[in-house]
Specification:
- By secondary structure, the chain is an alpha/beta fold.
- It has a six-stranded mixed sheet, sandwiched between helices.
- The relative contact order is 0.16.
- The protein has eight helices and six strands, in the order ααββααβαβαββαα.
- The radius of gyration is 16 Å and the shape is globular.
Length: 219
């Protein structure tokens, strides 16, 4: 499944952007070789907790080859996962750096870095089969943490496509929202983007509370 993700070229706009960023690079990363491809999910194959984000950052996952790695959002996320006991280290620098997740798996609704961090609905839906296959493979999964409204809606569409029985109407996304479905509990969390963390919309205690709740739900 990872190979299928890495080789995907289904969305021309995303392919062009991720490869342009990988060629031109950010000045501070000029000496690095960028990944410049779709970014697969990462974590414990026996995980009971899935953390679902929006998409790789242009100079984060698109550079390092690992989701939520190499940018400020990832710094917040993996530090919180470490505090909650889901990660062996609070730092995620790039694929192969020794980071190991325990009982947690991290993925993105869209696997390629999008311009302005804004995938289109069509790009989201094109990526749906990858998440669907991950959900099927993570057969111990019981909690899904959605980082932001985009991931929340994307997850809902994938669960519906899988045939899960879901509440109607769909509960509105918000930080701390909790939705019980027949197979898992969905927890809403504000995305740890700089827009949220710099303004105080999301704080470390708020993020920690979400993962404490996930831990409580899995026992």
């Amino acid at each position: 499944m990872t190979a299928d993700v890495i080789e995907c070229r289904a969305c021309p706009r995303l392919v062009a952007w991720r490869e342009q960023v990988a060629r031109e690079k950010r000045a501070s990363f000029r000496a690095e070789d960028y990944w410049g491809r779709p970014v697969p999910g990462f974590g414990d194959p026996l995980a009971r907790v899935l953390i679902l984000g929006l998409a790789p950052a242009a100079h984060g996952g698109n550079r390092t080859g690992r989701v939520f790695t190499g940018d400020r959002s990832g710094d917040w996320l993996f530090a919180a996962l470490h505090r909650a006991g889901y990660a062996n280290t609070p730092v995620s620098e790039r694929a192969g750096d020794g980071l190991v997740l325990d009982d947690a798996y991290v993925a993105a609704a869209v696997r390629c870095a999008p311009p302005e961090n804004k995938p289109t609905p069509e790009e989201r839906d094109t990526c749906m089969p990858f998440l669907l296959r991950e959900l099927d493979a993570l057969d111990r999964l019981s909690v899904i943490v959605t980082l932001g409204g985009f991931a929340y809606v994307a997850l809902w569409k994938v669960l519906a496509a899988r045939g899960d029985v879901l509440p109607k109407p769909r509960p509105k996304f918000g930080h701390g929202v909790e939705v019980t479905t027949e197979r898992s509990t969905i927890l809403g969390c504000y995305h740890p983007s700089q827009q949220n963390t710099f303004t105080g919309r999301l704080t470390e205690p708020m993020l920690d509370a979400v993962f404490s709740r996930a831990r409580a739900l899995t026992g």
